[in-house]
Each structure stands twice: as structure tokens, then as C-alpha cells.
Amino acid sequence: MNKKENTYHIPALFDESLDGLAVQPSGIYVDVTFGGGGHSRGLLSRLGDEGRLYGFDQDADAEANIPDDQRFVFVRSNFRYLSNFLRYHGVSQVDGILADLGVSSHHFDNEERGFSFRFDQALDMRMNNRAGQTAFDILNTYPEEKLSDLLYRYGELKEARKMASLIVRSRSEHPIVSSQTLIELLQPFVRKEKEKKFLAQVFQALRIEVNDEMNALREMLQQALKVLKPGGRLVVITYHSLEDRLVKHFMRSGNFEGENKQDIFGNRLSPFRLINNKVITPSEVETDRNPRARSAKLRIAEKNNMA
Which of 6, 13, 145, 159 has the fewest CB atoms inside 10 Å of its own CB, making it the most exposed? Predict the structure, then answer.
């Protein structure tokens, strides 16, 4: 791994995720979360001359990490448009899809992007900073009920209703313009021993809403099922319970509710075969080296021949 990749992002569960793809040297693969390019470079190292890799990323910053490799095609797009862009490139089916849903270290460490509560910064949080609403827009324009709902659903914050009420009252006097403004405003809800966890939940909720992450994930997974060849692998790394639950249900049942359908004999019907019944998590060695990987969970499924 070169210095640029290491600075931008250290890929989590690197070997485990690439092994999970069961890479065929002449196969066609997609890294729907290109980022720093770490997983993509690892995947390219396992491909032969006839293999192809498509890397998706909506963030302009990721374009600096594009490898000089004729087997690689970079797609400047959100992964929710997976099937559209594959079709544009003349690809109807692929052998494997890899998704690392974590926010890159680059985003957390870049003060201008507004992802971290460690800096006093503008409230942006857009993965694609060329378009769309910002966290500032949400905090200063959303109705109280909508604010409360997103804080509760995406941040799992028990006092979401009171927090939303305080935000709305405060912004009527002065706009909430920076992360420090927001942090100071929410101090009545902070328990000192759990301050970092609380703020992480608040910023996570805003980030998910800004980037419509849950809907984008649903759309990508549904399209992944369609474009994977029978026997193709879906490999997904999640970092919080909301997205992990979606992935787990989809891999087990083919739907997001986790409702298992059965044939007339009582056999479970699913478009996937689970490669690992138990979720894969980082080793202690990895988390010591890369603390941001500690919440990573890896799930691997193979598309059934009849799906």
C-alpha cells in the first residue's frame, strides 16, 4: 500500500474482503466505494490481463487516487446508479461486487468537509460536494418533526424530540453555522463520560440524511442482485447497526425486512447463499493498527444459480 492510500484511507478487513470475492483472474468486478483505492488495488493485483474492474465514487477528491491501469474504469457517480453506468459501459453482468460503507479517513480529517466534530468547521458533510443539500441546510430549514425523526432513526438518540425543539428555537434567533455552534447548543444533552459517542451519533445522523445513505444502499443492493452472475459474490463492509441490519436481511432473504419465503416443502428461498453464517470482524492486530476499523463488519453472499 503506497503512502497516498495510507494517508487517504486504510481499508478495513482488506484480505478478508478480497478473499470473500473469490476473484477469477478473467472476471469483471466492481468496487462501488473506491475512495482511496486500497481495495481496488488489491483486487487488481488478483486479476489477470483479461480481467476488468469498475470503481465508483461520487467524491471529486477520490479521482486523485485512480490507478494507472488499463483494466480499471473509474465511474464518477453514486453507487445507487450502479446498473445504469455498467450498462453505459456495455456490462450486463459481473462476477463480484465489493462495498466498504465506511467514511474515509480523508473525510474525517479534512476540516473543510465538515464530517468531524473535532474541528470548528462549516456544516457540509456532502460526499459529493458539487451538489445537494448540506448539514447546514438541514439544521436551519427542516421542520421540527422531521429533524426529530432523523436524529432518532439515524442517530438512535433517545432525546431527539427535545434536541430538535432546541435547534428550531435557537435557529430562529441565529443560524447554526458551524460544528462548534451545534456542539455548544447541544451541551445540555451531553454526559461528559459519553460526549464523544453522543456527538458521533449526532454527526452520523446528519451525514446519513445529507447523503441519503440508507436509500442509496437499498438501491445499490437491489441492483447488485440483478447484475451479479449466478455464482457471483457480494461482499459488504458495514460500520453501524442501521446499514448492517439492511445488508444482513437482504443477504439472508432478498428483501430488507428479513422475511424468509419458503417453497411447498418448507425450504427457505433466497437469491443468495451465505458464505459465512457468522459476521466477520477485524482482528485485535488490525484494530491496534487501524482503530477506525473497530466497528467494521463483513458479510459475504453468493448469488444462487436459480436467482
Answer: 145
What is the distance between the alpha carbons of residues 218 and 304, in angstroms, rounded to a whole number?
20
Residue 268 — left, alpha, or beta (φ > 0 → left; ψ -120 to 50 → alpha)? beta
- Residues paired with 228 in a beta bridge: 94
Q: Is the pLDDT of residue 88 over 70?
A: yes
What are 185-205's pLDDT values in tens digits?
Answer: 999 999 888 889 999 999 999
CA quadruple 131, 135, 140, 141: dihedral sign: positive
Rg of the Cα atoms in the chain: 20
Write down the pTM of the prediction. Answer: 0.91
Nearest C-alpha neighbor of 115 from the set 34, 211, 184: 211
pLDDT tens digits for 106-135? 554 455 555 666 667 889 989 888 878 999
pLDDT of residue 192: 82
Q: Is the pLDDT of residue 265 over 80?
A: no
Per DSSP, the residues of 48-103 read -TT-EEEEE---GGGGGG----TTEEEE-S-GGGHHHHHHHTT---EEEEEEE-SP
Q: Collect all residues with Cβ–Cβ distance below 8 Å to 178 and sequence separation of at least 6.
A: 120, 121, 122, 123
- Work out the number of other CB atoms within 10 angstroms of the CB of residue 242: 18
Q: Which three cell numbers stand for residue 55?
A: 470503481
Cβ contacts of 29 within 8 Å, gap of 6 or more: 21, 23, 43, 47, 51, 52, 53, 54, 94, 95, 96, 97, 98
- Tell me which amino acid residue 147 is: L
Q: What is the DSSP string of 105-140?
A: HHHHH-GGG---TTS--BS---SSTTSS--HHHHHH
For the packed helices 144-155 and 160-171, what is the interaxial angle rounded to 10 degrees? 140
